[in-house]
Amino acid sequence: MEFVLGILAAVFFALGTVIQQKVAQEIPDEDAEKAGLLLQLAQRPLWLLGIVVDGLGFLCQAAALHFGQLAVVQPLLATAVVFALPFGFLILGRKITHTNILGALAVTGGLIFFLVMANPTDGVDSASTSAWLISGGIGGVVCLILVTAARGRRPSPKAALLGTAAGILFGFSAGLTMTVVDSLGDGIVGLVTDWHVYALVLVGWVGMTFSQQSLQTGALAPAASTQMSLDPIVSVLLGVLIFQEQIHDTFLEGTVAVLGLAVMVAGLVVLARSGPLETPPATDPVPEPPA
Question: What is d(CA 100, CA 276) in angstroms, rounded to the nearest whole number?
């Protein structure tokens, strides 16, 4: 069940991302770094449509996390960049090249190798508070450094730094989502008093803000590749380190599984740098002054 729901979520996320990218680039640079970026984007109907589609993807993701493991579901969601190819062709008129096809094959093949060889097993339903504090503290410091370093940078490095921060937070959001979904049986009182819910809202909001800021730069290749690569990597790490999921039975299987994940990430980078997520400028670009 988690495989079907994970793939369905990837389809929705791919469509939502293509729609949101079209709108995010229209935001001026001076407005993109403000805290109210999402509120500004929310005034645009097309962007809201992309959010609605993303919401459907989130529901499928939450259901998949309820039935499966974090180390399985999040790599499945990485196939969103593959599904973005036909959506980019239909919506944005982007061509599908041989490089796109090779990247899609790498993502698909790497994912299959990872899932078969890793053989993920169930861990704990909820990580300990101390595990969340330690991992969240490390992730928060890394994101703070990345966002600080992004200020004043040119579009490409700025997009990569912000995209990396967004990808890290998306991985944490997935872990929090799995915990919240598993606690729904505690009733309304248990839900509103669960700190994981509020952490999910905060991390999701900040992660989405960084994501839109990275897309707004117009350097969509580094923005997309970093987000899509870091999300499954961080998710697998959280699944193993704090949710105690086992991803292999033997050293050889574990090694092949890691190689499969590496091939998948390489395919994601190739697709993000050459696929429909790359939007050409509307006018001839003005050369940037030398550093």
Answer: 9
Question: How crowded is residue 50: how many other Cβ atoms within 10 Å of its Cβ?
Answer: 22
Q: Quick one: CA dihedral 33, 38, 42, 44, positive or negative?
A: positive
CA 61, CA 39: separation in Å to the nearest integer? 24
Greatest CA separation for the chain: 59
pLDDT digits (tens, 9 = 90+) for 168-193: 999 999 999 988 888 877 778 777 88
- State residue 291's pLDDT score: 43
Provide the CB-side half-sphere exposure for 3 (13 A, CA): 5
Q: Report d(CA 6, CA 244) in Å as an integer.
A: 21
Q: How many CB atoms lie within 10 A of CB 170?
A: 24
- The residues, ordered by sequence, that sit 6+ positions from 106 with a Cβ below 8 Å of its Cβ are 263, 264, 266, 267, 270
Average pLDDT over residues 17-31: 71
**Rounded Cα distance, 69 and 240, in Å:** 10
Q: Which of 143, 130, 138 has its CA nearest to residue 169?
A: 143
* C-alpha to C-alpha distance for 289 and 122, rounded to whole angstroms: 53
Give yes or no for a contact between 66 and 178, defined as CB atoms under 8 angstroms apart. yes
Query: What residues have CB less than 8 Å from 23, skipping those under 6 apart?
Result: 41, 44, 46, 47, 50
**Cα distance between the two ends of the chain:** 52
Eight-class DSSP state of 285: P
Q: What is the pTM of this model?
A: 0.75
Measured distance CA(100)–CA(274) in Å, rounded: 7
Give Cβ neighbours of residue 291 (< 8 Å, ≥ 6 apart).
none
Least confident piece of the model among 87-91, 151-155, 285-289: 285-289
